[in-house]
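Operator note (shift B, R.M.): manual run for Retinol dehydrogenase 13 requested after the automated queue skipped it. Running by hand, logging everything below so the morning shift can see what happened. Input copied straight from the record, untouched. If output looks odd, do not overwrite the archive copy; leave it for review.
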Amino acid sequence: MACRDLSRAEKAAAEIRRSTGNGHIVVRHLDLASLFSVRQFAHEYVATENRLDILINNAGVMMCPKGLTEDGYETQFAVNHLGHFLVTVMLLDVLRKSTPSRVINVSSIAHKGGKIHFDDLNFNKAPYDSLISYRQSKLANLLFTQELGRRLKVSGVTVYALHPGVIRTELGRYVQTRHPLIGALLSIPAILLMKTPKQGAQTTIYCAVAEWLEPHSGCYFSDCKLKEPAPEGKDDLAALRLWEVSAKLVGYSED
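Run finished. Output pasted below as returned.
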């Protein structure tokens, strides 16, 4: 379990140990808003673990106020995409050694209508809009999955993106204050239609363990089914450009 808040992570780990009887639950610190933290985590993992069978990139922030990370990148793009990009590419060697292995990227239906603002990723030119920023980051998850799947073809490592559904968690804590109209739509009785965390985890679990998915590496899933993403989520040139830009921003070289 790679988590930013170690106190909450340890409580969750203790519950997993109690409910499953599995004592082999390891908690490690990972702050996706810090590229230093990502590198530190990846180096420690490679030094202490022999295998990585399934990597689930599940963390994220949603529609938060504008802010920059310590590396100078817009928070939602940095946490939701750049952090996951860097931790994944830094763990590719151990993933390759563990084949068949999988990478699962939790995206969102919010990628629809999204756009990668290559000339203004930090919203320095255009006014910051938390929803537009969130859509950009979720589209980035999808395009990263597509390009990573292409690059890992026939390697034994497969990669999938998914929409988990609208789930009753703290992820939407900024919505009520920043977007009251959207917040009202998510209130009772709409909130009764949301998924529980257990229900919301099912597509992630499906992509992690379903046996027939290998031919669909690089694809998008929702409600435990293969789904067609929005046209902007199938742009090969944007996916390649995003990879190149992301690698430059995080200082990653395949050499």
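Quick read of the result: Residues 130-151 form the longest helix (22 residues). The chain is about 45% helix and 10% strand.
Leaving this for review. - R.M.
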